[in-house]
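Look over this today:
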Amino acid sequence: MTEQLHRIKALAAQVYPEVVAIRRDLHAHPELSFDENRTSAKICEYLDKWGIPYQAGVAKTGVVALIKGRNPEKKTVALRGDMDALPIQETNEIDYKSTNAGVMHACGHDVHTASVLGSAYILNQLKDSFEGTVKLIFQPGEEKLPGGASIMIAEGVLQNPKPAAIYGQHVFPELPAGTVGFRPGMYMASADEIYVTVKGKGGHAALPHRNIDPVLIASHLIVALQQLVSRNADPRIPTVLSFGKVIANGATNVIPDEVKLEGTFRTLDEDWRNRAHQLMVDLAENLAKSMGGSVHFDIHKGYPFLANDPSLTHRAIADAITYLGEENVVELDVRMTAEDFAWYTHHLPACFYRLGTASADGRFTSSVHTSTFNVDEKALETGMGLMAWLGLRELGY
């Protein structure tokens, strides 16, 4: 095992400068969900360069590549990297700052894509040394419902050949570069988008008795919905309901005809998720009616919960300790954030883990989804090497 580990680390070090260049190029040219045309072309360019066969145009911009070792039908393992960026204006002053106004790789998907490409290089160099096949999934649209993962699955990405397991990694500025984090079992929440229109009768704010005030109805509704969750959710089931957008487009002396609310509902239990949806709709309709108004309550059901396969994840932890040392592998807490990698976890054994991206001197700690997010690029060497190692270990390398 020691010889194989050293070979992977040596190849990761060898291709590291090129992977850094790839990541910086992707960072400078971010693209929004399902519009990752340049990103897709860049992936294909490197796969062509390294002689790795692939299929482009999956889920519009996705790319699926296969690296076949000896006896390729024996077993298949998949590695996934997402490609899309976010509608955020970057404020970092760096040489590879986003050149696309209002678009930024603020969630590290440039790192994910570059890492999987680095893993592809390593695996391709070793294809005569292992049995089985590694499927590389370059996935679009993680940031936008219904999620590129669900579309790729519907288009057959988990068939021909069918993976026995899949790995995904995600940048994590709460850990230093060179470290990773795992959590077996339930890890991340489902995520639903809520769009509410409260309708009343607008008019002069000085004459509220002649109006049906949708602002007042919406105010009661927000409070009531919070109480509904706190009084109906099993305390053992983490649940979050938050409203981040309220539009009441009246004026100091004008009550509007309607108010719009937008929020998110997240939990870790599917039965409670479905029951809560109905409870929220019923409460909203009854409350609005009791106050003389009406409501349109629209729930866009999003990603399911993400549960890491315990057996696969425990093996991954042991292999990560071998690769990085026990001090560089940590246990993660449950998170109420969501990821469309969750779709894969409902179809096959999966392991989604975190890649530390902060530097030892305290830089690169800005949260994801912020205009100042960036990473210590040493994480790329860890990311591509460990992902290749995990995949090969699962193939029995």
Remarks:
- The mean pLDDT is 97.
